[in-house]
Design brief:
By secondary structure, this protein is an alpha+beta fold. About 35% of the residues lie in helices and about 25% in strands. The protein has a 5-stranded antiparallel β-sheet with strand order 4-3-2-5-6, covered by helices on one side. Strands 1-7 form a two-stranded parallel ribbon. The chain is elongated.
Amino acid sequence: MKPMSKIWQRMRKAGGEFIADCRALAAVEFAFILPLMLVLFFGTVEFSQGIAIDRKVTLTARTLSDLTAQAQSSLSPPVATINNTYLQNVFTAAISIVMPYPPAPTIAQISEIYIDSNLVATIQWSEGATIGAGATQATLTASTHNPGDVISIPSQLLIKQTYLILSEVSYQYVPTVGYVMAPSGVNLSDVSYSRPRSAVCIVYNNAPALQSGSCPLS
């Protein structure tokens, strides 16, 4: 029977060799940190794209209200008149703004607001539009606002007997992978207000109804 001291020495030697053996250590460590690495990588990609698209949604809202507010007046006193073709072209500008990201699904609305002498903001007219997958032009749709609806706007914009153009844009951002963010996507939205540039008001589909050829200011 071998002396206990020799058996103990062999056990210590074997234990030391086992501890010193690092051949599989890297693989074990990689297995531990891989999930974290994936979360960091896909999270960075998905949130970066989301932030970029959110910025484009803001730019789209500003552009839609600004282009509508630039409608030129051909009457005296200054009243600008626009039609479906004009608004459709304005909405279609969203496709170029959102690029290189897919423009669908983009939902937008443009409305004109009148603020009366009592500082009540009322919808004069409103038109909506959508941009579908692969579309090269926006499609006009019904708006969620109706003429006569009272709407809440920032107090800084409440100036008596003035008109405002309101644009509202929403975009459903769906991440490519959906590893970190919800695979169904996140709704991004923004609004923008602009005042008519060369006219007191902008008439669309005979609204607002002019009074003696002028924009209502009562």
